[in-house]
Structure formats: C-alpha cells, structure tokens
Amino acid sequence: MSLTLEDRAASPVTTGRTGYRHASLTVRGKDRPGIVAAVGSVLGEHGANIVSLDQYSDDPQGGAFFQRTVFGLDHLGSALPAVGEDLRRRLDQDFELEFTLRDLSVPKRVAIFASKSDHCLLDLLWRHRRGQLPVTVAMVISNHPDAAEEVRSFGIPFFHVPSSGPDKSAAEAEHLRLLEGNVDFVVLARYMQILSADLIGRLGVPIINIHHSFLPAFVGAGPYAKAKERGVKLVGATAHYVTEHLDEGPIIEQDVVRVSHADTAAELQRRGADVERAVLTRAVQWHAEDRVIRHGNHTIVFA
Amino acid sequence: MSLTLEDRAASPVTTGRTGYRHASLTVRGKDRPGIVAAVGSVLGEHGANIVSLDQYSDDPQGGAFFQRTVFGLDHLGSALPAVGEDLRRRLDQDFELEFTLRDLSVPKRVAIFASKSDHCLLDLLWRHRRGQLPVTVAMVISNHPDAAEEVRSFGIPFFHVPSSGPDKSAAEAEHLRLLEGNVDFVVLARYMQILSADLIGRLGVPIINIHHSFLPAFVGAGPYAKAKERGVKLVGATAHYVTEHLDEGPIIEQDVVRVSHADTAAELQRRGADVERAVLTRAVQWHAEDRVIRHGNHTIVFA
Amino acid sequence: MSLTLEDRAASPVTTGRTGYRHASLTVRGKDRPGIVAAVGSVLGEHGANIVSLDQYSDDPQGGAFFQRTVFGLDHLGSALPAVGEDLRRRLDQDFELEFTLRDLSVPKRVAIFASKSDHCLLDLLWRHRRGQLPVTVAMVISNHPDAAEEVRSFGIPFFHVPSSGPDKSAAEAEHLRLLEGNVDFVVLARYMQILSADLIGRLGVPIINIHHSFLPAFVGAGPYAKAKERGVKLVGATAHYVTEHLDEGPIIEQDVVRVSHADTAAELQRRGADVERAVLTRAVQWHAEDRVIRHGNHTIVFA
Amino acid sequence: MSLTLEDRAASPVTTGRTGYRHASLTVRGKDRPGIVAAVGSVLGEHGANIVSLDQYSDDPQGGAFFQRTVFGLDHLGSALPAVGEDLRRRLDQDFELEFTLRDLSVPKRVAIFASKSDHCLLDLLWRHRRGQLPVTVAMVISNHPDAAEEVRSFGIPFFHVPSSGPDKSAAEAEHLRLLEGNVDFVVLARYMQILSADLIGRLGVPIINIHHSFLPAFVGAGPYAKAKERGVKLVGATAHYVTEHLDEGPIIEQDVVRVSHADTAAELQRRGADVERAVLTRAVQWHAEDRVIRHGNHTIVFA
Fold first, then answer.
1. In C95-211, alpha helices (H)
2. Preceding amide of D216 cis, omega within 30
3. Within this chain, do residues A243 and A292 fall inside the same structural domain, yes or no?
4. How many angstroms away from the CA of C303 is the closest CA of chain A?
5. How many CB atoms neighbour CB C265 within 10 A?
6. Which of A135, B185, B264, D135 is most open to solvent, judged by the fewest CB atoms within 10 Å of its CB?
7. D83 and D127 share a domain?
8. Does the beta-carbon distance from C299 to A261 stay under 8 Å?
9. Largest CA distance in chain C
10. How far apart are CA A239 and CA A213, in angstroms?
11. Dihedral (C-alpha) D245, D251, D253, D257: value to the nearest 10 degrees?
12. Mean pLDDT of all residues in A229-253
C-alpha cells in the first residue's frame, strides 16, 4: 500500500470558507466485498462529509477496484494526516489497496512544454487566467523563443531550452534541473520533440501529451496529411499519458470533428487545432482534479 | 421512509449463475455525513459485493442526496427482504431517507402506447427482441389498428383502443382496465393523444413520453413545421416523465441532429425521427435499470 | 468520354406529377474555364430547370473538376437521350470530361449481403419500407439461413448461399449468377466473408461495405476487442467502396460514438452497431442519389 | 436589381499570385430556367475560372433562387466592374434577380462590441491574429473599460462607450459617429446592451449577435439559470442577425453541448461559453466569406 499525502500551503481562493475545504481520495486495487463500508466508516469517524463518490470494478468477481471520493472536513489541512493514517491502517489490514489522499484546495503544479504551434498552450493559459483550470502553472518551456513575451504577459516564467539534433542530453539535463521538485505533472502542448525514456523515468511525474489524431489512427508525424491522403470524413485528437513507447500510452480523452473532401490538409489542421485544444484542456482539468486513474495501459476517468 | 421491494420470478436469462444475481438500491433524501458508511455497512454485513456506486449531492451543506448502488449477493431472491429490513431500520433511525431496493434480474413490465407513427415503437420492440432492453413488454396499445400484425409478429399482445373526440373517458377506462396491476411503467412512443390528469393519477406508475423537439423550444404540436418556420440549424427530441402539465415534466434525455436550409419540413421530420427513437430508447433503458431518480421537476441520471 | 444513360421504367411513386421528373447529371474531369456555362447552356437549350447544383475543384489551377446537377424536364424519359447526346457533343468538343446522366425517378437496384448480424440489414429494409431509401432492393444474399423469414416478410427475395472454407469459388459463382444484370450496386451489410478480387472485377458494379471501426484505426477483424484493449474513448464505423485491397477502399462516410472505461467489449459492440447502421444508411442513400463521386482512393460527397 | 461592387485596396496576403485574385458572386431572386447558363456564360466571356458554385432553390416550381459562385480572374481589380456591368445587363434583361459581386481579397471591415464577458471577443481577436478570420477588425467598442489593454495589445483600436440607464441616445450617437463609413458589419460578442431600432436602421450594415441559448428556447436574459431550472440535458448557443425584434432575427448557426444534473448553473455557463465562441466564430467567418444569404427571417448558408 502506498500513501501520497500532499498538503502544501492552501490557496485561499479555492477554500469555500475558513477552515472548510475539500479533499479527494482515490483508491485502487483488488476488488473485495466491504471496501465501500471500510472507506465510508473511516471517513465517517472523522466527521467527513462525502460530496461525491464514483466507483468502478472491471470484474465484480475478483477484478480491479477503483474509487474516487471527494469529501469536506473542518480544518482539513490539520486533520488530513490522521485520516490518511487511519485509512492506511484499515486498508492495509483488510484489503490489498493503494490510495492517494489530496487536499483539493492545493492546486497541482504543472510545467507546460510547447514548440512553435501555440494554440494549445494559449488555450491553457487563457483558461487558467479565468480561473477555469485548478492548477498552478509553474513554468512554460519551449524549444523556440517565440512565445516568450506572450507567456510572460500572463505572469508565468518562460524558459527557452533549444533542442535540435539527435543528442538531446544537454537539453534534457536542463529540463530536469528546471523541473525537479517544482512540478506535479507535465503537459506537452504540441511539443514537437520526443522525450527520452531516461528523462521520463527521472522526472517521475505524470506527463500528458496531445496527439493530433484519433489514435491509433495516424500514429507518428504528419497525421493531417495522412488523413487527407486517406480521405477520412472526421479528424480527431487524443490526450494520453506519455510512456517510453511513443503514441502508445494510456488514453485519457479523445474527440473528433467532421471534415469533407473540400477541406485541404491545411484546413484539416486548422479544424483539428480546435479539437486538440478542447481535448487537452479536458484531460488537464480531469488530471488536476484526480479524476483519472491509470490501470495498465488504460485509464478510468470519473468525469 | 418507504420501501419498495420487488421480487417477482427471476428471469433465468439475466442471472449470471445459479443463485447469484444483482440488485439495485437507490437512496434519496436529505444529505448528511455518514450515509455512505451506513449503507455500505448494511450491505457488507449481508456479504453483498458492490458492483457500482454513483452518488450526487446538490449541495454538500444540507442539500439533497442521491445514490444508486448495484450489488451482487448469493441467493439474492431469498436474501433481499432481510437486506431491505436492515436498511429500513438503519436509515430510519439515523437519517431522513427514502430508498428503493430491486432485484435487477426481474425486468420491469412496460406497456407501450403508439399512434400511426411507428418508428419509436418498432425500435423499442426490435431492441427488445435482441436482448438490449431489460424489460418485459406486457402489451402495446394504440388508437389505430395499423400496427397490430407487426406487433403481434414479435409475440407481444396488441390492443386497439380508439380514442377520438373530446371525451376520452371510455378510452381511458379501457386503458386502466388493461394496465392496472400489469405494468411497472408506461411509454408513450409517439402516442398523439393527451392523457388526462385523472388517468395519470389513477395509473400510479411512471409514464415516459418522447416529445419531437428540443424542449422547451417548440412545445405543443407541429414542432418540425415550427422549426422550419424559425430556420433553426438543429432539430432535437426530448424524453421526459409525463405530469399533468403538458410538455413540462422532468426531462430524462435530449439530443439533436444538424439540419440545413435545404431540408424541407418533411425532411426535418425524417431526421428528427432518428433522434426520437435514439433518445426514447436511452430513456427507457435508463429507467428500466433504475438509473433515473426524479427530484422536483428534474432528474438525476446515473448513466 | 463515357456516357451512362439509364432509363428503365419510371416508378410512379417518385414522379412529382405526370410527365415531370428529375434527372441527375454528374460531371468529372480536368478543370477548365467554361464548363459551368457549357453544361448550363446545353441544359438551358432543352428547357431544363436546374433544381440544385454542387461543384468542387481540387485545384482551380488545372486540378480535377466535379459537378452534380439535378434538373427537371417535361417528358424527361423521352427527352433524356437527346440531352445526353448534346452533352456528349459539347463536352467532347471543348473539354476532357466524363459524365453520367440518370433519371432519378428510376431507383437503383441493390443486392444486400448479410451474415448473422442483422442490424444493418434490417435498418436498410425498414427504411426502404418507409420510403426513405430511393432504391429497389432486388435481393438479399446471406451465408446464413437465419434471416430468411424476416427478409421475405418485407416482400424481398432471400437467397442462402453458404460460403465456408478457403475455397469460395462455388459460392462466388452462385453470387455472380444471381447478380449479373440484376443490380446496379451491392451493399455488404456486415457480410463477414471477403469477396475475391475476381468476383469484384466480374461484378463490375460499385460495392459498399460497412466496417465496424473508424478506419484506418483497427483494420481487420475484431475491432471492438481491439478498441477495448487500446482503451479508446470513442468507437466508430466507416462506409467505403470495396476494392481488392481489404479495408483500403475510398471512404464514403464515418461517424463515432462516445464510450467509457465502464463499457465492456460487448457494450462497445452494441453501441457501435447503432453507428454502423446510421453510417451505412447515409452512404447507401447518398450513393443511390448520385451524391458520391469516386476520385482515386477518395470520394467527393455532395451531401 | 441592385449592384454592390466593393473593390477597396487589395490585401496582398490573400492574393494567390500577382494579378490573380478571387471574387464572390451571390445571386438571389425568383427561380427560372436558364439562370445558371446566363451567369456561367457572362463569367465565361470574361475568362473567369469558377472555383466553386453552390445553388439552392426553395421550390423548383417558381420558388426563390440562391447562388454563390467563387471565381478567379486575371487582373480582377480592374476587370470586376465590367463583369458587374455585363451581369447587370444580362440579369436585368431576362430575370428578376439581385446580385452582389465582391473582391474576396478585400477583407470586410468589422467592429466588435463587447461587455464584461470577453471569451467571444478574445477568441475572435486570437483567430484573427492567426490569419484564420478573413476580416479587418476596425475597432472594438465596449461599455466597460476592462478589455482596453488586452485589445490594444492586438494592435486594434479600443473605444470605451459607457451605456447605462434607459436613455441610450448619447451612447448610440457615439456608436454611429465611430462606425459610419468605417465598417461593413458589426458583431455583438456578448454585448449586454440592446441596440435601438433607430441605431440598427441608421447603421445600415448587417449586425451579428451571439445568444447564449439554443433559440427559441430560453429567449431573453439569464438562459443558463433557466436551463438549470428546467433540467435540460444540453445547452446551446445561437448566432443570428439582429433585427428590431429581440432574439428573433434570422439564425445563422447553432450548436449544443451535453450537460448533466451535476452541472451547476455556473458550470452550464462555462460549458456554454465554449459553444458560444465556436458558434460565433463560424457565423462571422461565413458572413465574411459571403456564404450566408438572408431570405425573409431565414438564412441560406453555403458552408
């Protein structure tokens, strides 16, 4: 069993009233009777008020169990460690489960990677400024300097880390130096460089990528040209977690838009860009709210 | 607190293996801490295996609480009364809640009302024959005799109950005689007569209607002509529970389809018909699986 | 230049009023200035009333040109050959174009192939009976006998042609015998056998297939199992013309439906079936109304 | 017959190669045989290369006729007046038609009105900066000063025209002074003030509004609160031309997004905002490209 307890300084913005905040609890492991009652009674003993609860079992007879609970609690910040301790004791004793407990008033810290195309990057920054994305954007990293001024106008640090040629070790060392200890996850917002397996491993935080096609159709580069070539009637986008296997990681969200013979490859790209930003935004929001649970190469999404 | 315990003879088809079946429990009432633990522990004491659990509270601070749980249990048929008894005792004692407990292997019995347009009727019968609708179609009632042969070819009783003129009391008396005690809900599948408030009250079972517009746009008759007249770019359909207030009952499901200036009113109607049957089918399926909870003039849908 | 003039006995049903019917003219070839005026003036000289006109050029500077015109004409049946003759003379003289001229009041004749899954077959027959598909269903051919009674209840001939094992030559000889001269196109409505290149060539009519995935994702067999395995969030269907390259022919229409982690492979299949029948119906209708023009491995669809 | 010939200084950006540009011709009036040939032959005589042609007749027997043609021409700027002259002569002589001829390389000039909500405004400015909206944004006018800095960072003039209280005559006088002669159309991008019939009449240019509901459902103010109250399962947006009858003008485009019981009115508003900006963008683009023809209280959209 693992316990991830995050309780950094709370943002006053997302706290409803003094001392009353919400936490999320995600539980995953082997399905067995009694889990709901066990979790419910621990939360009940602490006076927690369950706001929402979603649960899924991929096979009621010995399958895998997934649960997301959001609850409120007086003096959440100081009370959460004891809740975690009791959950650990109870779930360790009777079940084979992992759980994550997190104070939702503390936004996750994210770094956004971008290249020349900035529609996904700007949509994220824009929604963030409107208070629609519950994250702290710690920094933007790009292999092109173009977006520096725009990003900084949002009050967000911008770092230009050039990355050309086959040897990316210098760039990745710089990435690691900037990111280590500073972010809870990374978003590749149309970042056109491939991260090495080494960097992915050393970062040790979830990485979300937006792929500009309806995966697994049109893996790899140039999907809109391929889509035009194949004469498809819909183009799509896919947000997925990054693994060392390119375009193969667990899918978080997908969507499509209708196109026709009259759309050129450039127009497919423009229509696709709207889908890309919408899909990536949903994936980032769901991840930030602990709505996505990874399981093998799949995701459980309690949207 | 009310207890609705339905346990008619189980359909062998929907029972996974001998003695092991699923039940649904829906709970609604005033939100208070501890409900989840209370429900979970009663189910746990009976050895129930919770398969899925959905929960919603419209205001964590003293709002209304809604929960749908599906669980498996050995010898469900004989065990369910005791589960109901314990739930009643526990929920009565500590909370202000209503609940419904139902053996899901016992399909709800439905009567389908139709008039001349039979696309919704036939789609329901067709899906039912394929095993996609977990209901027993007890009968079809129509104010036109046209569909008799087709309906009976599905092995389903058809009753022609003429209903013209302002005085519908004779027809409604006949409806009551046919339906009373025989059905758990009624579906108006493009039935073009208005049911009187008296009939609705005396039937005492939920009635689902399909309205051929995206309510509240185009209430009343002739919505496709009105949609053409208004030059809308989408036409829709709405499935809702019937109340004595025409076209005003709680909405269960809605959808739309894109149309253009080039579509005539007749073409709007044809495109709309596809949406109508899809929307009605979803509403009937969700109702049959206890996924819809009425609350005031709204619905909570755990789809 | 080729001329395809079809003028079989007109169906009185689709003729608006005596002697007044509609024809479609599709033109394709090298784009050059003056085509619209040339076609327009030939039609004008014959007193034709153009009802709709769609046009597309994939590159205004020397690209390919596509046009679909629908026009009305008094005494269309007897007047059409002269229109065709004049078009041929005019378009031959000044342009490099092919055209097809067809009396729309004469429905195309179609054979539908099916296997055990009958949702696509029945949706086509059902819409046809309602007058929504402007085709004559000449026959249904299946490698399973199951649907015989149902198909014949629509008044349509059913032929059971078994086709198992690697050698399909006997079955295909029977197919050819049944189809030759009797149909204008063929629809594979979830027919689970592969047609040989030889049969495709000898049939010499367009063949429309419905593939149960969003091509090019999940080519080949078992796409819903593959979709579940990959954890996609949408499943789709693709209607395409059949070529000797399996799953590679020109795409006519595609659509998708949203699914979630909670859907089993069987539920993906059930949701997918609704998309399959909708997509196939649109493709068949558009083909029947001469709205689809093949160009290389693509289609131009004037929907 | 009316002739609108616009030929201001061409933007070099949208001109394919020196001297070769595109024009749009929209024709509307009483349908009669021969129109296509007449238009085609005038264009042909001038050596025009027709790039696309769309046509619609609301009744082939004496209905209304609508056509949009896009054509290329060497030295378009100097050649267009003669084309217009010949069209006028020809269409005047034989038909009852109005037409508009416009050099597409000259972007229409637009003024955008906004209030506090800036999601629609910013989406338009953003797409414009990316070269995706073929317009010249002449100015932004708002009754709030908040967006001044942001708008000016796009290099676009911003004018703050306060407009509170029942008497809007001072504000509207200012509007008129700013707009007269400077714009070809106006976009109300969530402008929360009602324009008087007098202002609409004196402006004399098309005005496009975005209404935050699927009209005619939820006309007037507060549609998201009303949608929540009614328990709808979809919320939508409508772009329409403004007439003196509030929320009653010809609809250009509509779309919807799925919502659930779990969405608060604030969340409906946030989801709806995404639909609003998408719908408004499409409407503005179509209007800018002469794809929308008004007819009575409807629109013909050749999208």
1. 119-129, 148-152, 169-179, 197-203
2. yes
3. yes
4. 10
5. 13
6. B264
7. no
8. yes
9. 63
10. 10
11. 60
12. 95
Residues A219 and A238 in one domain: yes
Q: How many CA atoms lie within 13 A of A191 on its CB side?
A: 25
**Average pLDDT estimate for C36-47:** 90
User: Contact, A207 vs A200, CB < 8 A?
Assistant: yes
Query: Per-block average pLDDT, block size 10, for chain B (303 residues)?
Result: 35 40 94 88 90 87 91 91 95 89 96 96 95 96 96 96 89 97 97 95 97 93 92 96 93 96 92 96 97 96 94
Chain B hits for A44, Cβ within 8 Å: 33-34, 36-37
Q: Which domain holds residue D264?
A: 108-301
Query: Which CATH number covers residue A73?
Result: 3.30.70.260
Task: Tell me whether C232 touches chain A (CB under 8 Å).
Answer: yes
B298–D260 CB contact, under 8 Å: no
Tokens at B46, concatenated: 């009976």
My answer on whether A167 and A193 are in the same domain is yes
Q: Give the number of A-B residue pairs with CB atoms closer than 8 Å.
A: 72
pLDDT at A6 over 80: no
C198 has catalytic annotation: no
Establish how many alpha carbons lie within 13 A of residue C248's alpha carbon, considering only the half-sphere containing its beta carbon. 5
The Cα–Cα gap between B213 and B275 comes to: 10
- Exposed/middle/buried for C59, CB within 10 Å: 0-12, 13-18, 19+? exposed
What's the pLDDT score for residue A12? Answer: 32
* Residue in C52, C262, C270 closest to B132 by CB: C270
B154 has a chain C CB within 8 A of its CB: no
Tokens of C13: 């049903």
The domain that holds A148 is classified in CATH as: 3.40.50.170
Same domain, A170 and A154: yes
Do B237 and B137 belong to one domain?
yes
Cα–Cα distance, A279 to C81 (Å, whole number): 54
Number of domains in chain C: 2
Check whether residue C186 and residue C246 sit in a common domain. Answer: yes
ipTM metric: 0.89
Euclidean distance between CA atoms B117 and C178, whole angstroms? 36
The last residue of a domain, from among C54, C75, C103: C103
| CA–CA gap between residue B79 and residue C58 (Å, rounded) | 69
Q: How far apart are CA C218 and CA C268, in angstroms?
A: 14
Q: Decide which of C103, C130, C150 is a domain's last residue.
A: C103
